[in-house]
Amino acid sequence: MSAIAPEGSGPQTACRSRGIPSSGQHIRTFHNRGGRMGDRHHDALERLWPAYGMSVSTEPLDATAVFGRSAPLVVEIGSGMGDATAAMAAADPERDYLAVEVHVPGIANLLGHIDARGLRNLRIVRGDALELVRDMLPPDRLAAVHVFFPDPWPKLKHHKRRLIQPAHVALLRSRLVPGSGVLHCATDWAPYAASMLSTLSADPELVNTVDGFAPRPPHRVTTHFERRAARQGRDVFDLVFQRRAA
């Protein structure tokens, strides 16, 4: 699988420059952060991006061709540095994982995990997750969507940037397999957790798998954000909703 990149550009340039249209089709739900990278990360991008990375585009994604098999597909929105994502993919070899991230050092780090662990069920997409879901993934296809520790945008004036809001949830839910597909969210920001619970509960095609917040499922690996929240005395809230049968 080769990277979707402008002519004449290398993998790192592809990561930085492609995937997010400049026309402002919707309000971004993420910070497009920079970051310093060492030689290890530069090497991972150069060697591994063409095989395991792609950028968001308007071309439909053929997951069978990308992964070389037909398997349940999980979309991981905001994989960060990728440690938890790699661990979950390694522990779940029967499903394929598509990690969506904009942070280039995190992408490079996850590429290194793919290589070191020999993961064949994990690929990385650079760009806006909402555009990936909208333009590249067909309805009724995903086994799960993971939204772990998204930016809480705590200021009231920034709430419009939150990922979990009705229109975005409707889009994500539409790509889940009816009757079995799961939308799993987690946050350490209590006000956002309450908002998430209200928003997900209000969606007519989603059903809460428990009464209120869910216990952390064993398959959700503890993330850097979760460990930091624990050190700072904040609770972590999981929300696990399933799409209704058609």
TrEMBL record:
Q: Name one GO molecular function term.
A: tRNA (guanine(46)-N7)-methyltransferase activity
List positions binding S-adenosyl-L-methionine: 76, 101, 128, 151
| SUPFAM superfamilies assigned to the protein according to its UniProt record, in alphabetical order | S-adenosyl-L-methionine-dependent methyltransferases
Q: Which residues bind substrate?
A: 155, 188, 223-226
Top EC category: transferase
Q: Where is the composition biased (Polar residues)?
A: 10-26
Q: Cellular component terms, GO, for this chain's entry?
A: tRNA methyltransferase complex
Out of the domains of life, which is the source? Bacteria
- Pfam families noted in UniProt: Methyltransf_4 (PF02390)
- Annotated EC: 2.1.1.33
PANTHER family with a match to the protein in the record: 3-DEOXY-D-MANNO-OCTULOSONIC-ACID TRANSFERASE/TRNA GUANINE-N 7 - -METHYLTRANSFERASE (PTHR23417), PENTACOTRIPEPTIDE-REPEAT REGION OF PRORP DOMAIN-CONTAINING PROTEIN (PTHR23417:SF14)
Annotated protein name in UniProt? tRNA (guanine-N(7)-)-methyltransferase
Q: What is the lineage of its organism?
A: Bacteria, Bacillati, Actinomycetota, Actinomycetes, Micromonosporales
